[in-house]
Amino acid sequence: MSTVLFTHAACVEHDPGPMHPESPTRLRAVMAALETEEFTSLDRRESPRATIDQIARVHGRDYVEQVLSAVPESGLVHLDPDTALCPASGEAALRAAGAVCAAVDAVMAGEARNAFCAVRPPGHHAEPDRAMGFCLFNNVAIGALQAREVHGLRRIAVVDFDVHHGNGTQAMFWDDPDLFYISTHQSPHYPGTGAADERGIAGNILNVPLPAQSGSATFRRAIEAIAMPALIEFSPEFLLISAGFDAHAADPLAGLLLTEDDFSWVTRQLTGLAARCCQNRVVSVLEGGYDLVALGRSAAAHVRALMQA
User: Torsion angle of alpha carbons 195, 295, 281, 135, nearest 10°?
Assistant: First the structure.
C-alpha cells in the first residue's frame, strides 16, 4: 500500500493578505518539494469538499455558517487580527477539512497505509466557536470525528509537533476521555495555552512545553520519555498528526531549533507505534511552517518517512 497525498488548488488561492506569514507560497513550497523523483510513487488525489455536517461534528453549525457567510466577494475580512478571509477562503477551508475526511476514509478502506494532507488554511488553533491563529476550521479534529462517526472507531489520538500549542484541538478533546491529544510546543509562546497541568477531563491531554532554544536532544527526549509511553498506554485505534514544521531552526516565528532530521525521526517513532497499536492507520495534516526552504525540506522529510513506514 502506498502513501496518499491529498491536496487541492483551492488551498493555494486562500490569501490572507500581503506580508502575511500564512501565505499561498507555503503550500507551493511543500508541493514543489514533493515533485522530485523520489515522490513519484505518491498516490496523489484531489481533496473533496467537506460537508457542513462533517465540520459541524466539532464546530457549532451556526459558527460554520457564520464563517462561510463572512467570505467576501472582494478584498479581505478579518475574523481576528491574524485571521483573514479572501474570496477564495471558503472553498479552501472546505477542501482542507475535506482532505482529512477523505484521507481517513482511504486509510480505513485499506487503499493506503497512511496519508498526508497538504492543505491550508491550517486548523489546530480553531476552537469550537472561534477562528484564530490563521485557522478557520479544525481539520485534524474533523478527521478524528470522521474516524469515529463513519468508521465506528472509539480511541483516537492526535500528536501535534507544531511549535505553537494547538489550543483548539485541546478544547475540542477536553471532555472526551477517548480522544487523546499530545502536544510538544515552545513555551512561553503563542497562544499562551498548553501548560503541563492542562490535562483534560480524564488525563486525555498531554502537553509537553519546551523552552526556546531546546534543540534536537531535548525534543527527542520529550518524545521518547513522555509522549511515546503515554501514547502506548492509550493504545489508539487511529492516529492523526498535526504536522507543523515551524519548530525548525530557520523558522522566523519561533525558536525550538529543530532540523529536518528531527521531523523524519518523530515521524518514524509515530508510524512505528501505529504499526503496533492501530494497524498502521496514520493521517498527517499540514499545520505551520513559515520559512519556505525549511518548510519544503521538512515536509519532504516527513512524507519520506511516511512512505517508508
Answer: 60
**Cα-based distances in Å from 283 to 85, 103, 147, 203:** 27, 7, 11, 23
| Digit-coded pLDDT (tens) for 276-295 | 999 999 999 999 999 999 99
What's the pLDDT score for residue 14?
98
Let me know if domain 3-308 sits in CATH 3.90.78.10: no
Q: How many residues does the chain have?
A: 309
Expressed in angstroms, the distance from the first to the final Cα of the chain is: 10
Do residues 123 and 135 lie in contact, with contact meaning Cβ atoms separated by under 8 Å? yes
Catalytic, out of 8, 59, 124, 125 = 125
125 an active-site residue? yes
Sheet holding 43-46, edge to edge: 43-46, 3-7, 114-117, 282-286, 238-243, 156-160, 179-186, 205-210
Strand-pair category, 156-160 with 114-117: unpaired
- Residues contacting 187, CB < 8 A, separation 6+: 165, 194, 195, 209, 210, 211
270: DSSP letter:
H
DSSP string over 221-268: HHIIIIIHHHHHHH--SEEEEEE--TTBTT-TT----B-HHHHHHHHH
Question: pLDDT tens across 119-166, in order?
Answer: 999 999 999 999 999 999 999 999 999 999 999 999 999 999 999 999
Rounded-to-integer distance, Cα 303 and Cα 197, Å: 32
